[in-house]
Amino acid sequence: MIDLGSREPANVAPPAEAEPERRRGVFRRLRESLSKSRQALQEEITASVFEKIDDETWELLEEALILADVGAPTTAAVVERLEHEVDSGAVPAEGEAIRDRLIEILAEVASTARAKIDLSAQPAVLMMVGVNGTGKTTTIGKIAWHLSKEFGLSVVMGAGDTYRAAAAEQLAEWADRAGAHLVRGQEGADPGSVAYDAVSAAVARGADVVIVDTAGRLHTQDNLMEELAKVRRVIGKLIPEAPHETLISIDATTGQNGLRQAKVFSEAVEVDGVVITKLDGTAKGGIALAISSELDIPVKLIGVGEKLEDLRPFDPAEYAAALLAE
């Protein structure tokens, strides 16, 4: 279920006794999805690494985390902190204790920028940005489905990717599936005008949420990055505080390139959160930690598979445990 700031699901919550089992099932699914990243880490962080605690121990740990795309600055800070705690006696110099503390520290790092999706406005306007091929349009469709079917909210979708005809068709399919209203323009139409029409339609219909798609673009394409800023300004003319959430989709398989994408996009438009997709297909699962730590942009959702339930809130503690726990 998607994690929202101020909206409660319209459907009945599961019985309290069912919640622990549900969470166990969610964790199992997450752990399975991060199996490639965990396997890669465990090949590097073997039990023998912590049998003898010396300089080589910390060097090997650094290498393992960097290979998992946790990022050099984040890795250095994490390992330095862990080394200090072991040297001071705060953490026993034993393999299991060190691994458990490492999981805790990584969860803390990821938690520093944690936030829910804010849908408190009426209508709440979400804008989705990102590079082509990151699963952006599919993510929009899944978000719309969850908001409509699980939370009982009325949703308007704006097909602002007017350069790729397939994007509008894809959104149309999701709109039908989610029971959402779709606003689309002609192929090649001004994306700003589509966004404006979508927000106008939401206001007229009294809808709860508007989700505006944008054309996928490389973070190196300055003219298209400027166009994003224009779309944002157009939306703001209708509702001054909007868009209330700008989310960027990042493909986990791109590793550190995803970190660079998030950085450049956040310089063009104010990015409120990250959706990391395709975590089930990569050994570079540490990218979520790097983005949270180095850019201070919260990871709000993660995609760990093709199913609807595979788009889920980012839980730092569960994520760190699934990444490292044996």
Q: What is the overall shape?
A: elongated
> Termini, distance in Å?
26 Å
Radius of gyration: 21 Å
The number of distinct helices, counting runs of at least 4 residues, comes to 12
Residue windows where pLDDT falls under 50 for at least 5 positions: 9-16
User: Structural class of the helix and strand makeup?
Assistant: alpha/beta
* Mean of pLDDT: 82
Largest sheet: 8 strands, mixed
Give the gist of this structure.
The protein is of the alpha/beta class and 326 residues long. It has twelve helices and eight strands.
Summarize the structure in words.
Helices cover 50% and strands 12% of the residues. By secondary structure, the chain is an alpha/beta fold. The chain has helices at residues 19-33, 35-44, 55-67, 72-87, 95-111, 136-149, 165-178, 191-205, 222-238, 256-268, 287-295, 316-324, and strands at 124-130, 155-159, 181-184, 209-212, 245-251, 273-277, 299-303, 311-313. The chain contains 12 helices and 8 strands. Helix 6 (136-149) runs parallel beside helix 7 (165-178). The chain is elongated and about 65 Å long. The chain has an 8-stranded mixed sheet, sandwiched between helices.
Write the layout of secondary structure elements.
Blueprint: H1 19-33, H2 35-44, H3 55-67, H4 72-87, H5 95-111, E1 124-130, H6 136-149, E2 155-159, H7 165-178, E3 181-184, H8 191-205, E4 209-212, H9 222-238, E5 245-251, H10 256-268, E6 273-277, H11 287-295, E7 299-303, E8 311-313, H12 316-324
Parallel strand pairs: 1-4, 1-5, 2-3, 2-4, 5-6, 6-7
Antiparallel strand pairs: 7-8
Helix pairs in contact: 1-12, 2-3, 3-4, 4-5, 5-11, 5-12, 6-7, 8-9, 10-11
